[in-house]
Amino acid sequence: MIALLAIAALLGAAGLAGAQDEDDPKVLFIRGADRSGGFLEAGNDDARTEQLADIDNESFDGGNHGWATFADVLRGEGFEVEQIAETAENASGPSEGQPVDLTALTLTDYAVIVLGSNNATYTAAQVDALDAYVRAGGGVLFISDANFGGSWQDAPNSDQQFLDEYGIVVHQDTGTYSIDDSEFVTPGHPILDGITEIDGEGVSPFDLGGATIDVTTLLAAEGQVRLNPGDAQGSTRAATADDAALWVAEVGSGRLAGHYDRNTFFNPGGAGTDITRFDNLDYALSLFTWLAGDGFTPPVDPSPTTPTTMPPDTVPPTGDAVGYWMGDAGGELYGFGDAPDPGAVPGRVVDSASTPDGSGLWILTADGVVHALAGATGFGDVDLSTLPDGEAPSTISVLPDGSGYWVFTNRGRALAFGAAGDIEDLVDLGIAPALNGPIIDSVATPTGGGVYMIGFDGGVFAIGDAEFHGSMGGQTLNGPVVGIALDPDGVGYWLVANDGGIFSFEAEFLGSMGGVPLNQPVVGAVPFGDGYLMVASDGGIFNFSNLPFLGSLGDDPPPDSVTTVTGFPT
User: Fold this and answer.
1) Is the pLDDT assigned to residue 311 strictly greater than 70?
2) Alpha carbon distance 38, 30 (integer Å)
3) Which residues contact 428 (CB under 8 A, 6 or more apart)?
4) Where does residue 560 fall: left (phi above 0), alpha (psi -120 to 50 degrees), or beta otherwise?
5) CB under 8 Å to 486, separation ≥6 — which residues?
6) Cβ-count burial of 21 within 10 angstroms (0-12 exposed, 13-18 middle, 19+ buried)?
7) Which residues contact residue 216 at a Cβ distance below 8 angstroms, ignoring those fewer than 6 apart?
8) For residue 22, what pLDDT is reported?
9) Which of 466, 321, 455 is nearest to 394 (CA)?
C-alpha cells in the first residue's frame, strides 16, 4: 500500500524553482495568442491553445503540451522566467493573433528572449527593436512548429520576419529524428559539451545558405526538409549542408540560436519526445546558458570539481571489500577500489545495481535492456513496444538476495523480473497522469517487500513495506532531486539534489555539497559505509561516510556524462 502522505507531497508540488533574486538573468517566452495554434490536430478552442507550448502548462498527458517542467528547471538553475502571449483579436474560434509590442518593452531587462509559438505578423519597428536588443547584448532563440499556427506557414512566417535581417530561412515542419555525438558538426562548442544525443519529432530546421552574418552549424538537418513558400504547405527536398537543426551566431554583443523542434522541451509524456529523453534536458540548459552570455554562469558550474572525503573517521579492516562503480551515457563502466572494472555495454546507461556479494552488476540502458555482468543473473529486459508514447525505463531496483529486480519507468510503472513480485505501482493507482515530474530513482527495502520511488520534484512514494518518512515534494528547491540512498540501518533515507544538497529523513545528516561551487551537477547517490556517496556528471566523487575515498574521474572526465553510481555492498 502506498503511503498517502507521499502521494500528497508529490502531487502538491508546484515545481522545482529556487528562490529568485533580482539579479537572476531573465528569460522571456513569447507565446502565440489563445486559439491561434493546432491547425493539424486541434478540433476546438481549448485544443488550439493547448498546442502553444505554454510554460505554465503542466500536463503530462501524451501529446503536444507544455514546457512547464523545463521552465521550472530553468528557475532552479538561476534563471527568472516570464511569458507574454500575443493577443487574440476575437473571443472564440481560431485566431490569427496580434503581435507583442516589442517597442513598448524594456527588452534589455531580459538575458534571453524565446520566439516560441509566436505566429503573429510584426511591424518593421518591432523587428528592428529585437535586432537592436541582440546587437546590444541580448540572446534570442528561434523555435518553429506547424502546430504553433493556424496553417503550415503561420509560425515560420512569424519567425521569418526577424530572420530576414540575417539571411536565415526557417523551414516548415516535417521529419522525426535524433542526433547523436557521432553526427555533431561542431562537437567542441560549449552547448554540446557532455551531450551524447538529443531528438525532435516533427521538426523545423533552418537554411543557412543565404546567411548575411557569421553563423555556425552545430547540428545538421537530416532526411527531408519542407520549404516555406510563405502562403501554403511547401514541397520537400533532401537536406543539404546548408540546412541546420541547431545553429548559433554572435551578432554585435549578442547571440542568436535556432533549434529544430519544440518537442525537445516538452513536459514528460510529450508527443514523440520530451525534456527527459536522451540528453534533452542537459542540452537545453547548456543552450540557454550560452544564449545568456558570458555574464551568466549557472550555480552548478563556476569552478572545478574536487574529489572529497569527509571525514575518514575509520577505514575498513584489511580484507574487507570496498568500492563503487560509475556508468556513463556512452555505455562505459568504471570500477574503483575493490569493484572490478566491468568494461562497457552498448547503449546509454540509465541506472545500475550490484549483486549482494559485489561480484557482478546489472546495468539498465535506455533501450530497456538489463545487462547482467560477471556474477549477476539476467532475468529479462523491458519490451519498449509495450510502453505508451513518452514512457521509458528510468531506474532498476534489485531484491536484497539478487533473485530478481523491478524496472520502473519515468511514469512510475513497475515491471517485475525473476522473483520480484508484481506490486501496485503509480499506474495501477491512477497517480501517474498527475505526476509533477518523472520518476528518476528507486530502491528496494531491506526485506524486498517494498520499494521507494523518487520523483524529479523530490516526492517520495513508499510502496509495500517501505515506510514514508517525508519528502521534498511541494518544497522550493534550488534544483531537481536526482537520487535516494537508504540509511544502512534500514530505517530512514537521504535524498540528493543536483546541486549536491542532501535532505535527511530519519537518517543522520553527514554533510553535503549544497552551496559549494561544482564543475558539473550531481547525478546520483548511493549508501556507502555508514553514510552516502555522491557522483557528479563529470565523474567527481563526494564521500560522506566512514569509508575512504577510492578515486574518481573528476580530474579527467570521460567524453560522455556519467549517469549512475553503484556502491559495492558494505
Assistant:
1) no
2) 17
3) none
4) beta
5) 443, 445, 446, 452, 492, 493, 527
6) exposed
7) 186, 189, 247, 248, 249
8) 57
9) 455
- On whether the CB atoms of residues 95 and 45 are closer than 8 A, the answer is no
CA 352 to chain centre: 19
Q: Is the pTM of this model over 0.85?
A: no
- Report the alpha-carbon distance of residue 26 to residue 99 in Å, rounded: 21
DSSP-assigned letter for residue 519: S
Closest CA to 276 of 389, 437, 142: 437
CA-CA distances (angstroms) from residue 278 to 127, 200, 273, 283, 458?
Answer: 35, 11, 9, 9, 21
- Least Cα distance to 485 among 475, 495, 477, 476 occurs for 495
- C-alpha distances (whole Å) from 346 to each of 193, 367, 537 are 21, 10, 19
Please classify residue 489 by burial: count the beta carbons closer than 10 Å to its beta carbon, then call 0-12 exposed, 13-18 middle and 19+ buried: exposed
Q: What's CA 186's distance to the chain center, in Å?
A: 22
C-alpha–C-alpha distance, residues 49 and 149, integer Å: 10
Contact 426, 412 (CB under 8 A): yes
Closest CA relative to residue 68, chosen from 347, 297, 228, 265: 265
What does the pLDDT look like over 449-486, one tens digit per residue?
A: 999 999 988 899 999 999 999 998 888 888 889 999 99
Q: Which residues contact 389 (CB under 8 A, 6 or more apart)?
A: 62, 269, 271, 272
Q: Are strands 112-115 and 26-31 parallel, antiparallel or unpaired?
A: parallel
Which residues lie across from 395 on neighbouring strands?
408
Decide: 35 and 52 in contact? Cβ < 8 Å.
Answer: no
For 552, counting Cβ atoms within 10 Å of its Cβ (0-12 exposed, 13-18 middle, 19+ buried), the class is: buried
